[in-house]
Amino acid sequence: MLGNIALAAIKFLAGIFGNSYALIADGIESVVDVFSSILVLFGLKYSSRPADENHPYGHGKAEPLITFLVVVFLIVSAGTIAWQAYQHIITPHQSPETFTLFVLAGIIIWKESSFHVVMRRSKRLKSSSLKAEAWHHRSDAITSVAAFIGITIALFGGDGYEVADDYAALFAVAFILFNCYKIFRPALGEVMDENNYEELTEHIRTVSLTVPGVKGTEKCFIRKAGMEYHVDLHALVIGDLTVTEGHKISHLLKDKLCAEIPELGNVLIHIEPF
Q1: What is the pLDDT of residues 163-192, one digit of tens each?
Q2: pLDDT tens, residue by residue, 44-63
Q3: What structural domains and CATH numbers belong to the chain?
Q4: β-bridge mates for residue 222, sequence order
Q5: Any bridge partners for residue 228, and if so which?
Q6: Among 27, 28, 8, 165, CA closest to 96
Q7: Which of 30-39, 140-149, 192-201 shows the highest mean pLDDT?
Q8: Helix, strand or coil, per DSSP, at residue 33
Q9: Which residue stretches of the chain are H helix?
Q10: Which residues lie across from 272 on neighbouring strands?
């Protein structure tokens, strides 16, 4: 958040004094990034709360809801940038200053590095909101690349090419909207309890077969809530076992799964006769 505040100030100052609306548009996105980061921080804090009487599956669903708000922020900022870029295109103005290119080069390196750092964290924690935050950094880097290209064309193209800077801002808008979809779609799947975790399903089935008494598995339903995965699993056992023996196997299986796969939350085992 501190980095985005500093970058927003740099972009606004460079855009105003360097006569570049693409940089100002970039600054607007950085301001939005600050607010979205605050939302992500709140979402991570709230979704990590333990289960309670009213929320037996925890508070993880708050995370994709926060992701939806981040997407709304991005769409609003994209619309603002597009409108202002259009106004600049129909209004004659001067070409940007050369020094803005050096500012943009530094911004591109910083934001792309930030993208890789946050994306690694999001994969490790299985966090959709952190993934959205990472794509914020990537979209910022791409909009800066677009601004760099637009300013370069405006500077070296001569008269009539001043609007290249503004068209670069419009390109940035298209990229931001594309990323909105990439962020929104998995978060929607999480809210709708989509069962789309083939790799994790295979891992669960493999671990299950190492538990004494488990002869196989049938249905395996997985739903994600925050950074945890809740599982409903049908386990096959010998049909003539007593209820007590089947109950014991189910507890052994649940304990084994939770120990081997730490990201699992609630695991419900249904015993089926083999």
Answers
A1: 777 787 788 788 778 878 877 888 888 888
A2: 788 778 878 888 888 878 87
A3: 2-191 (1.20.1510.10), 198-273 (3.30.70.1350)
A4: 231
A5: 225
A6: 165
A7: 192-201
A8: helix
A9: 2-17, 21-47, 62-89, 99-125, 128-157, 164-191, 198-208, 243-260
A10: 236
